[in-house]
Structures are given as C-alpha cells and as structure tokens.
Amino acid sequence: MANQNTLLPLYQKLWLKHTFSRAMDSLIFLLLLILLSYRVYSISHYSFPWFLATLCESWFTLTWLTTISTKWTPARTTTHLDRLFLRVGELPQVDVFVTTADPVLEPPIITINTVLSLLALDYPANKLACYVSDDGCSPLTFYALVEATKFAKLWVPFCKKYNVQVRAPFRYFSEDATVDKNTDLQEFEQEWSLMKKEYEQLCRKIQNASQKSNPCPLVGEYAVFSKTELKNHPSIIKVIWENKEGLRDGVPHLIYISREKRPQHPHHYKAGAMNVLTRVSALMTNAPYILNVDCDMYVNNPKIAQHALCIFLDSKGEKEVAFVQCPQRFYDTVKDDAYGNQLVALPMYIGGGFAGLQGIIYAGTNCFHRRKVIYGLSPDYDIQNMKKDFGFINGTKSQKKTMQIFGASRGFVESAKHALEEMTFTPNDKLFKSLELKAANQVASCDYEYSTAWGKQVGWLYGSTSEDVLTGLVMHTKGWRSEVCSPDPMAFMGCSPQDNLGQMGQHKRWSSGLFDIFLSSHCPIFGTLFGKLQFRECLAYVWITNWALRSVPEICYALLPAYCIITNSSFLPNKEPGMWIPTSVFVMYNVATLLEHLISGLSARTWWNNQRMGRITTMTSCFFGFLDIVLKRLRISDTVFEITKKDQPSSNDENVGRFIFNKSPIFVPGTAILLIQLTALVISWWRWQQSLLKNERTYGLGEVFCSAYLVLCYLPLLKGLFAKGKYGIPLSTICKAMVLAFLFVQLCNASVAN
Ligand SMILES: O=c1ccn([C@@H]2O[C@H](COP(=O)(O)OP(=O)(O)O[C@H]3O[C@H](CO)[C@@H](O)[C@H](O)[C@H]3O)[C@@H](O)[C@H]2O)c(=O)[nH]1
Ligand SMILES: [Mn+2]
Q1: What is the rounded distance in angstroms from the CA atom of residue 362 to the CA atom of residue 453?
Q2: Where is the active site (predicted)?
C-alpha cells in the first residue's frame, strides 16, 4: 500500500483540445499566406504603399505563426492533495516574500490584508515565515504591520476554526459569511462580530496614522525611521513577530525589511528587493520553497501552498519543475473590462499554450520557487561538480569562488550550501532572539552585491523592468520546466489598474522590459541555440518579448489607409477576387477572437473592449516601450520601474470605464493617428461627393473601411477631443498631435508630387 502511494503521481497534466480554436487559427494563417502570395504575384501593382503593406503583412504572418505555435498544445494541471499527506510525513518550510514600495500608491491597508491572508494560510504556522520588503522605508507601513500582527493573533485562529475561505479581512467582511453545517451559529456570530469590530478598529488606527505626517512619535521601535530619506537610509530589519514556541497553530514569523539605499547605488527595483529578501531569509529560516506575491495579491485559496507542493514533491516534478505559477486574477474589476487589463482570455489561450510546452512564464507574483534554483542550480546537476562550481570544497581558492558568487557573508554561504544540497538547515534554531541582526544588515546593505553573481547568475536577474519574465526565461534556458497551478477556488486575487492611465503605464513597462530581454544576451533565440530552451518555448518567448516591436508595423499599417486616401492610391487589392483575401482575414480574425471570448464566459462587449484596447495600447504604450528601449540602448536614458497605483475601486461611479487624460506624451501619437484618420475620411467623403456629381466610379472602399474601423477603435480618444477636465485631451497634446498630422499630410502630398 505504502509503495503504491509513493508511485501515484501528486499531480497530473491534462492536455486540452481547443480544436475549434486551432482550426480557425490555421485558416487565418493560410489566408495570410495566400495574401502574401497574391502580393508577390501581382508585382505589377508595385507602389510604395503596396510594398509597405507587404512588409507589414509579412511581419503579421510571422507573429501569427508564433501565436499558433504557442497556442497549439494547451495543457492544465490538477493536483491530488489527498495523496500529498500519504507521501510526505511533514510539510516542508515555506518562506513568503511580499514587496511593497510606496505607501501612497500601495496603501498599507492593502498590504496588511495581503499579509494577514498569508499568515492565515492553511499551513503549519511553524513552517511558515513572512518577509515584507518595504522599498518605501515608511514608518506607516511598519506601523500598519505591527498593528496587523496584533489583529492576526485573533484572526488566524478564527480563520482556522471556521475554515474561512477568503482570509483577507477586507474581502471577507465585504461578503456574506458562510459557515460549515456543524458550526455553532451563536458562537460564530459572536466571534464574527468581535472580529469585525477589531478589524474596523485596525482600519481606523491606520487611517488616522496615515493622516499625520508621522504615524506615531519616532521613538523607541520607530526611532530608526527618524533620519531616513526615501533613497538614503541604512537597512532596517525588524522581527515584528516571532513564533517562539514553534506552535503549529500560532501566528507565523513576520519580518519587516527595508534594505539600505544610497543615492549613488542602483537598487534594481523589485528584483533588488527580492534578492535582499532571499538573503535575509536565508539567515533566518532558509526554507527550501519561496512564495512571492506583490503587496496587493491576497490569498483566495488557503490551501494553495499544499497544491503547489504537490507539483514540487511529485517524483517527476521534483526533478524537472523550477517554479509553480498561479494565475493572476483581479477583484472588483471594471465592467466588461473597459481598459482591457483583466487578462482573462489571454492567459487561458496563450498561458495554457505555454503550459503545454516547457512551461508558463514567471509572472512576478503568485509564484512558488525552489530556493536552490534561485541560487542558480541546473536540473541535472552532479553533487560533486555542483560543489566545485559553487566553490563549496574546502580550500582558500574555492572560498574565494564562493564569495565571488554569493558575496562575503559567511552565514549566508553556509546556509546556501545547505539549501543547494537540499538539507534542512535553520541557521538559528532559537531564531531571531539570538540572531545577530548584524549579519542580516550586512546582506541587506547596498554594496553587498558588488562583484558577486547576484542579479547576473544568482537570484532575481537585473537589467529589465520585467525581471520576472527574465528570471523565468533563464531557468527555462537551463532546462527547467515550470507548471501552472490553478485550483478552485482561484489561488490569489489582486487589484488591477482602475483607469486607463494605470493600464497604459503598466503596458509600457511590461513591453519595454520584455523587449529589453529580447535584445539582451538572454534573448530566447540564443537560449535555444546555446542552451536548453525548447524550440517552441523559444517561439513563445519570442512572441511575448516582441510586444513593443509590434507597435512599429502596426503604426505603419494604421497609417497606410490614410496615406492611400490622401494620395488617391491603394494598398489593398481593390478588384475581385483579390479583395476577398484581406476581407476574409479580417472577418475570420474577429470571429475567432470573439468566439474565444464567448467560450471563456466573457461578454461580446469585453471582446470588443479588448480588441479596441489592443489597438490603442500597441500604438501608444508599446510604442513608448519601444522608444524607451531604443533610448536605453543608445545610452541616452535608462528605463525606470513606475509603480502601478493600487486603489480600492470606487463603486457605482457612472464614469467608470471612461478614459482620463493628462499631459503625458503617451497620448500624442494616438491623438495624431486619430486626427489623420479623420482627415482622410473627410477627404474621401469630399471626393465621393465630387464623383457623384461626375457620375464616376470610386475605388478605395477598403481603405475607407480601414480608416473608419480605426476611428471606431479610437472612440475613447475621439470623445476625449471634445470633453473637458480630466476626461478631455489637454489642448497642448491636441496641438502637438495636429502638428504631427499636418506633417503627415504634407509628406503624403510631397510623395505624390515626386
Ligand atoms: O522599486 C520597487 C518597485 C516595485 N516594487 C514592487 O514590485 C511589485 C510590482 O509592482 P507593480 O507596480 O504592482 O507592478 P505590476 O505591473 O502590477 O506587476 C507585475 O509586473 C512586474 C514587472 O513589470 C512584476 O515585478 C510584478 O511582480 C508583476 O505582478 C509591487 O509589489 C511593488 O511594491 C518594489 O518592491 N520595489
Ligand atoms: Mn500589481
């Protein structure tokens, strides 16, 4: 019996059949090929727009090929929790990392809800430790965590006693409470009311504190914050709560870390913060598994750690899987996904596709890692070679090597050695009491990483604002796989941007970070040529890392119809049968994407919003992402990680879903494209009137349709031209866009004159 249990897999991979989606995608691909052949065949049509269209369409065809390859063999996993306990006697330790960076953009109340939901995980409390990194160095965040810990002592037992599902209090109390059948209702109601009262008090305290310049006098515990500046302060490490007795049902350890920052030292944003968390936790609990969440991602399925461990501890997963990624889902989302940022259909088709290849990308949050993989281990390591590679063989020469990799902390090197050999090792059994915080301060200092492998081969990798995808890609290049874990209920829930500004900033950061990866030495193509990145996984990475680059052909293609109308030329075949080819590509593409949305349970409106936002963001945010990287490569300016605002949605606002504008240059190209299409439409209408008078036949219907379609996509901007206040596009932006549009029309006219 025991034998059989060890043989049964802890998780299974199910291959999905998206036959319909496959058929549609292939058909579109075929049509694109026909279109290209038609273009080549009718070379006699050669003209500038015809040539440019051929170039753009070749690009679209290539992109479509990578899309199909990514989506072709989707998979998902199911985990067998019941078998986990038969397999392992005791659950392993898990260190949880939460990052926060700005108490204004990321209100502490959101962060503490995430932390509370993590402390209340359905997991032995003596096997958990929660580390919070605060890049904002904010006494308010610290204060909120201290107060939250007091509440956690009531909250954690309450959640466990009544088997609460949503363990983030702000969500729990916003819904009607449900209880198991056997619960003593009276007792429950009493405790529930008490808990609600306590939570409201906690909120009030934090609210009051946030209104003062300092949450409390900066003395005692808080004295360390008295002489700090945002980017100039020593490291602050505080053990807020220690589960001293190692109680299984207690509250897990909670540690606050604000790493050292100095003006001259680059801090590498989130990746830098994660590396400090890795090192400090190595000195304290050194758990073999790490869960990483952003400050807004609360636990929605308290058993998620066990589910992830099913994958890690499975006999196959144990050897192959580097990380387990849970999907990102959002709560209180804007109706019908007006800003196209809920990412529901995309992860289902593209994410599912990745999962059926070498594995899903690492998406930065809701992800479980193995510590040894973070330290740079490859899947088929040989223990002796590994020791040599990391310099763990006695002798001064090898000691130097270890330091070159991991830095000069002896304590850390010792713990890393054990982590790599997968031996349980807690550097300090009496944990924090006897722990020398000095050692922790050393590894959190800003110069610790100089001339080490941190950020290059070890830990979260530097050099891209999409540090997550980069770090995951390098693991895949080493030959590791990854898995998606999406049990029911959904593992985590978070905030998505509540307006188009947040959404556009996020897309700009992602697209630039991803394109940065494509141009770096970690480019997925090299990964396949020289590493162990599988070919189709490489294509999938090429698909995702090229996001910013896609803006260029897309903008060209969007300008083509206007160019043709203005210059009275054409880029589309305007006679039968040729004209049917692009028409059917357009129709098929829309039908296919619409059906994908409907099958995913989304509304037709959501589909349209996603299409529309796809066009807008590619030509605005992604284009700026592209420019950012061009400037970075030319060493003119560096990219920065702009934090997304996490706000609790304003309910019942009638303006929800409306676009808001500011003076950001990001709106200039979009407005210019819109003005150009409008100009073209006016010209074509005028010409049409003329031709009616002369009784001539007009061509160029295709071009007019394309222009009109773009105006429809850009409707939010069109409304912005006429609205006032934050809903209106600023006059300066309109003027700049008008200049661009004017130049474009001049260019068109000049090209005709030649
Ligand atoms: O200097 C910094 C900047 C950011 N963060 C943290 O990084 C996380 C992600 O930032 P956010 O503004 O929420 O970005 P998103 O676009 O929502 O994040 C996604 O994309 C990022 C990469 O662009 C990943 O780092 C994230 O994990 C992933 O959820 C947050 O917890 C921040 O507190 C830091 O700790 N230090
Ligand atoms: Mn986020």
Answers
A1: 21
A2: 135, 468
Nearest to 82 by CA among 11, 32, 172, 131: 11
Q: Which of 110, 294, 361, 646 to mutate to test the pocket of ligand 1 (most atoms within 8 A of CB)?
A: 294
CA distance 494 to 485: 17
Which of 540, 609, 581 is closest to 341 using CA atoms? 609
The DSSP letter of residue 224 is G
Q: Check whether 294 is labelled as a binding-site residue.
A: yes
Query: Which backbone phi and psi does 28 adopt, to 5 degrees?
Result: -60, -40
Listed in sequence order, the residues at least 6 apart from 480 whose beta carbon sits closer than 8 Å to its beta carbon are 320, 321, 322, 323, 359, 373, 378, 379
| Assigned token pair, 559 | 């300008």
Number of Cα atoms under 13 Å in the Cβ half of residue 55: 15
CA angle 209–643–109, rounded 5-degree value: 30
CA separation for the pair 300, 647 (Å, rounded): 19
Which regions of 179-245 does DSSP assign to beta strands (E)? 236-241
Please count the other Cβ atoms lying within 10 Å of the Cβ belonging to residue 425.
15
DSSP designation for 335? G
Using most ligand atoms within 8 A of CB, pick from 261, 270, 515 the residue to mutate for ligand 1: 270
Q: Using one digit for the tens of pLDDT, what is the confidence trace for 312-359?
A: 999 999 999 999 999 999 998 888 888 888 888 788 889 999 999 999
Which residue, judged by its Cα, is nearest atom 18 of ligand 1? 364
- Output the pLDDT for position 1: 44
Ligand 1 centroid from CA 270, angstroms: 6
Which residues of the chain register pLDDT less than 50? 1-2, 430-434
* Angle (CA) 59 63 68, round 5°: 145
At 705 the pLDDT is 95
Tell me, what amino acid is at 116?
A: L
Q: Where are the alpha helices (DSSP H) in 370-498?
A: 371-374, 383-389, 396-406, 410-420, 431-434, 437-443, 467-477
**Closest alpha carbon to 322 in 287, 292, 359, 275:** 359
Round to whole Å and give the CA distance between 472 and 365. 12
In order of their start, the domains of the chain are: 19-71+546-644+661-753 (no CATH), 84-498 (3.90.550.10)
Is residue 122 part of the annotated active site? The answer reads no
Q: What is the ipTM of this complex?
A: 0.98
DSSP percent split of the chain into helix, strand, coil, nearest 5: 55, 10, 35
Query: How many whole angstroms from 496 Cα to the centroid of ligand 2?
Result: 7
Place of tokens 């999938």: 540
Q: Answer yes or no: is the C-beta of 107 below 6 A from any ligand 1 atom.
A: no
User: Is the distance from the beta carbon of residue 365 to the nearest atom of ligand 1 less than 6 Å?
Assistant: yes
Token reading at 51: 């040539």
Q: Are strands 94-100 and 236-241 parallel, antiparallel or unpaired?
A: unpaired
Residue with tokens 């050897």: 319
Please report the pLDDT score of residue 650 as a whole number. Answer: 61
Residue with the two structure tokens 């619409």: 594
CB of 341 within 6 A of ligand 1: the answer is no
Calpha distance 154→157 (Å, rounded): 6
325 Cα distance to chain centroid = 11
CB of 114 shorter than 6 A to ligand 1: no
Say if strands 367-370 and 289-294 run parallel, antiparallel, or are unpaired: antiparallel
Residue 99 has what pLDDT? 98
Give the whole-angstrom CA distance, residue 25 versus residue 495.
32
Ramachandran category for residue 732: left, alpha or beta (phi over 0 → left; psi -120 to 50 → alpha): alpha
- What is the Cβ-side half-sphere exposure of residue 622, based on CA atoms within 13 angstroms? 22
Phi, psi of 461 (to 5 degrees): -90, 145
